[in-house]
Amino acid sequence: MRILRFFITRIFLKRWILVLGMIILLFLANYLSFTAARSIISTFQGFQQIETLNQDGTFIANLDPDSKAEDETVNIDKTRKLYEYLHNNYTYALQADGFVTSLDNEHKMEVTFNYINEEAYKINQLRLSQGNHLNFIYQLNKDQIPVLVGAGLAKTYPVGSTIEIKDPVTQQLVNLNVQGVLKKNTYRSNFYAPNSKNYFNFSIFLPVNEEFIQSAGLDLHVNGLMDIALLDSNEEEAMNLKEYIQENLGMKFNFFTQQENVDYFEEYYIYSLKIICTITLLLLLIIVCLAIWNNLISIRLMIKDFTINLVVGLSYSKLRAIFYGYFGLLISITLALLFALIAFNRYGFWLGKANLLATYGIFGLISMDWIALLIVLFIDLIIAFTIVELTIKKIKRIPISVGVLN
Q1: Which residue among 45, 54, 382, 399 is least packed, with the fewest CB closer than 10 Å?
Q2: Are the beta carbons of 389 and 145 closer than 8 angstroms?
Q3: Coil vs helix vs strand at 68
Q4: pLDDT tens, residue by residue, 61-88
């Protein structure tokens, strides 16, 4: 116990400002490592989800940044004709997310309506925790519309319940029947940035057919075009649609394959990842050098006390255990701070009522958070091993003898 107290007070905390600085640097390195690891995991998940679109004959629409359509060139009559043209000449997947509405629920979250046609529904392969999948055969003004609800709405609107509400895009009073409940944290990855996701815990998925589309307003028509995917098509047909849209709506769309979207994403994403990794490696190198230097300088300044401890029974194996215990404590402190920051960030989405980002998980953390934390822990263990073993190796080279006690 006396030896441990000696090392803590006279060696490790000899320069407490350096120790504090090392904790700060280690926390920054851990945060950057966590950010990079979680981003890579999220990207991998995104690639898995959009893989069904990465095949021959699939082209995804993207509004050209230079497109400057005038409001008067886009009206409901023109967009209805456009969707009729699409229906008659193409197989396409349409999904429009994020139409916000007020709907009572236990968490007092705003609810988003997500409109999805049958082809997009097949591609998404949404997983349910209970209930049945969507049915796209219904008459808008006569039948109840089957819907799926997110996990956050399941208690308020269980399977079989009905919801009477004014639909945000048709502006008609509709009668919805809850057909099924989505699994917790069901998400959709962005076609152009697979590391970005929207979570659907507080969303209602409403199936759209041709009748619904023709009854919908301009918002759904235009938003639906932004990510529309042509299936079983070819480049010539995609260019024909591009020209049709530009001639009739004055909007310029590009149609890319999913692989082209991925290539563009990887170009800037890998560059950003390299910067983060470079900064992280530099921080870790500084931490290793700073820790070893601080330990050795403190030991040299306290060489007499250190020699006495060696004489009375301190072995290098015990010394190694003391160092591992100390750096284990530092790692625990920084990981605890990182965990608190992540948990608060996740909880902040609930406090801020960010319904497309609110997620369920242990302490608010979801699976990719936990995996990223494990990766950070593994990196920290490597750093601790490097510091301790190099420090012990350097200490063994310090000439220590009873003569220093004179």
Answers
A1: 399
A2: no
A3: coil
A4: 988 887 765 556 788 999 999 999 999 9
